[in-house]
Write a structure and sequence with these properties.
Elements: E1 3-6, E2 9-12, E3 19-21, H1 22-33, H2 38-47, E4 54-56, E5 59-63, H3 64-74
Antiparallel strand pairs: 1-2, 3-5, 4-5
C-alpha cells in the first residue's frame, strides 16, 4: 500500500490508525478508491449523504472502516456497456419518469 501526504504530514495506509482527520480522510479515499477529498467530505457532512464521523473537540474524525463502506456504497453495479447503465434516478436515456399530476382547476 502507498502513503499519502496532507498538510499535516504523511501517513501510511498500512498504519494501525483507525481514525483520520478530514484532510487525511480525503487523501485516503482518493488514494484507495480513486475519488474523494476533504472538500467533498465537508460538503457531505453539511448536506448529508457522507460517511459517518465523530468529533474530537473541534476536529472531525472518520474511521477507516466507515470511509471504505461509504466509498463502496457510492459505486454503481458493474456494466459492460453504457446501454446497461441505469442512472441514479432509475430511468434510461429517452425514458421519462412518473408524470406529476396537473393541479385541478379551481372553480
Amino acid at each position: 500500500m502507498g502513503c499519502c501526504s496532507t498538510k499535516q504530514g504523511q501517513y501510511s495506509m498500512d498504519s494501525n490508525r483507525h481514525r483520520l482527520r478530514r484532510p487525511e480522510a480525503g487523501s485516503y479515499l482518493n488514494e484507495k478508491h480513486g475519488f474523494g477529498s476533504a472538500r467533498l467530505l465537508a460538503e457531505k457532512a453539511t448536506k448529508g449523504g457522507g460517511p459517518k464521523y465523530a468529533r474530537v473537540g473541534r476536529f472531525v474524525v472518520y474511521e477507516i472502516a466507515d470511509l471504505d463502506a461509504w466509498a463502496e456504497a457510492q459505486l454503481s453495479p458493474k456494466v459492460s456497456s453504457t446501454s446497461e447503465y441505469t442512472p441514479v434516478g432509475g430511468f434510461k436515456r429517452g425514458q421519462r419518469g412518473p408524470r406529476a399530476k396537473k393541479p385541478e382547476p379551481t372553480p
